[in-house]
């Protein structure tokens, strides 16, 4: 089975009048010359569900013939605004390749892929090169004809410009070229893609009414939409074993769950409780993979810093062997979860939440006042848990109490993320302070987990080395507890 080839796509699109000449970009930044056009005919079939679930998630799946990159293309959004494009050759056939279908399965739910749009593009490509003749970008002048599948035939035709950076070109060049094109009379494209333009009859734009202050429900839903989009993006990266993807997916899941809990007077808690439980389950399935990775990196690093006399000969090998087994088991647990019907149902529940949010009467209240009250309640619960720490005995009981404080601090921090857009800079400062607090508590919890692992590793042969590391972790935990106490004393109310 052919593995997809991944590239990062950085491009901008522009509208150009039919009789307007292609702008000349020679002399713009490092561009020394704009080469004569090369004509290519591109034919593409786009696949989606009948209700366009991929398009709504900013995902594009197509089969294209013509050009140097003909083949199957899956375009996925990236957090930095660029797009990651996965390529497979045409010899994979006319049905959607299984590798690509698997990556978009969470978006499909119970929907099935079919051809939704066909495009024919006559492209005139101008390579933009530097003084050495190296291609920096390509400026494409496209004449496009599109056909939307459905009961009623919809045809469209238009002209557009597209400038795309070559691999290795400096990202800032894209902005430089965009400014030059606008100065030459091009207009930023109204539609973000050719596909989006053709399917516009099925996805009508609904701009917000001007001059109206946001309600609490609108602000919370905007945050949830962003987190669900992040869940989808990082889910695809996990399926491709991308670095840090498991961690980022888990964070997006936890942010979503936190919003459902903290703003339960905006979104009916009874209606979201089951979804919240499934989000907790999903985060739990991801946790061992991330935690095992972090713990091994930390302990192996600490082991290398010990004096040679403190390290018994087999200690590094024992540590590596133990964590290789744990890593394998944790990764398989993630793969099993992502392929499960329960995980697919979670995505369908998230879609329903956004499509039919269970808003309460409180959701119609002005955003700032209603959401700040929810944040203050979250801070109050955090303060209550901190106050209880004085009643806990040092050792496992206090460690567990600090871990509960960490959970409440994270919840307050995530709640602040929701409120910041309507509350301003003062809350941003408080949010940064809470973030520092959660970082210290996170390191403390890592120290507790490390001690547990070191106890399991210790035996007659390796007890000395792992005992030394255990004492270091114990001392580290004490220092972190003291640092937390100092930070808490300096933290005011939001």
From TrEMBL:
Q: Where is the CHAD domain?
A: 213-493
Q: Which SUPFAM superfamilies has this protein been placed in?
A: CYTH-like phosphatases (SSF55154)
Taxonomy of the source species: Bacteria, Bacillati, Actinomycetota, Actinomycetes, Pseudonocardiales
The molecule here is called CYTH and CHAD domain-containing protein
Extract the ranges annotated as region (Disordered): 1-34
Indicate the segments forming the CYTH domain, all copies.
Answer: 7-205
Originating species = Amycolatopsis dongchuanensis
User: What Pfam families does the database record attribute to this sequence?
Assistant: CHAD, CYTH
């Amino acid at each position: 089975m052919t593995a997809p080839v991944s590239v990062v796509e950085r491009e901008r699109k522009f509208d150009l009048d039919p009789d307007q000449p292609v702008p000349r970009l020679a002399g713009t930044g490092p561009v020394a010359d704009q080469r004569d056009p090369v004509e290519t005919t591109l034919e593409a079939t786009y696949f989606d569900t009948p209700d366009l679930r991929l398009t709504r998630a900013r995902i594009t799946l197509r089969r294209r013939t013509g050009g140097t990159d003909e083949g199957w293309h899956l375009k996925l959004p990236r957090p930095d605004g660029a797009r990651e494009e996965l390529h497979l050759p045409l010899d994979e056939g006319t049905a959607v390749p299984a590798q690509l279908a698997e990556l978009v399965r969470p978006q499909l739910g119970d929907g099935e892929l079919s051809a939704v749009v066909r495009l024919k593009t006559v492209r005139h490509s101008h390579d933009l090169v530097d003084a050495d003749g190296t291609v920096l970008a390509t400026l494409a002048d496209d004449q496009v004809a599109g056909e939307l599948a459905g009961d009623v035939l919809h045809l469209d035709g238009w002209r557009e410009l597209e400038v795309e950076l070559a691999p290795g070109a400096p990202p800032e060049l894209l902005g430089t070229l965009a400014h030059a094109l606008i100065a030459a009379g091009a207009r930023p494209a109204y539609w973000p893609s050719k596909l989006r333009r053709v399917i516009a009859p099925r996805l009508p734009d609904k701009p917000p009414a001007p001059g109206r202050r946001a309600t609490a429900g609108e602000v919370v839903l905007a945050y949830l939409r962003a987190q669900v989009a992040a869940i989808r993006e990082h889910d695809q990266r996990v399926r491709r074993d991308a670095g840090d993807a498991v961690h980022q997916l888990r964070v997006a899941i936890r942010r979503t769950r936190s919003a459902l809990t903290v703003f339960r007077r905006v979104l009916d808690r009874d209606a979201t409780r089951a979804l919240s439980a499934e989000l907790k389950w999903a985060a739990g399935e991801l946790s061992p993979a991330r935690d095992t990775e972090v713990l091994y990196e930390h302990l192996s690093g600490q082991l290398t810093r010990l004096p040679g006399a403190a390290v018994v000969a087999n200690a590094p090998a024992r540590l590596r062997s133990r964590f290789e087994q744990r890593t394998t088991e944790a990764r398989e647990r993630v793969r099993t979860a992502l392929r499960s019907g329960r995980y697919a149902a979670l995505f369908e529940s998230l879609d329903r939440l956004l499509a039919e949010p269970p808003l309460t009467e409180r959701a119609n209240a002005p955003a700032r006042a209603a959401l700040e009250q929810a944040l203050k309640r979250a801070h109050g619960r955090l303060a209550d848990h901190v106050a209880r720490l004085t009643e806990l005995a040092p050792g496992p009981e206090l460690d567990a109490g600090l871990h509960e404080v960490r959970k409440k601090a994270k919840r307050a921090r995530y709640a602040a993320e929701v409120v910041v857009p309507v509350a301003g800079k003062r809350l941003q400062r408080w949010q940064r302070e809470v973030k520092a607090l959660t970082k210290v508590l996170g390191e403390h919890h890592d120290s507790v987990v490390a001690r547990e692992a070191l106890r399991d590793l210790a035996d007659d042969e390796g007890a000395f080395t792992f005992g030394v590391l255990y004492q270091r972790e114990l001392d580290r935990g004490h220092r972190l507890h003291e640092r937390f106490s100092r930070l808490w004393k300096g933290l005011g109310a939001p």
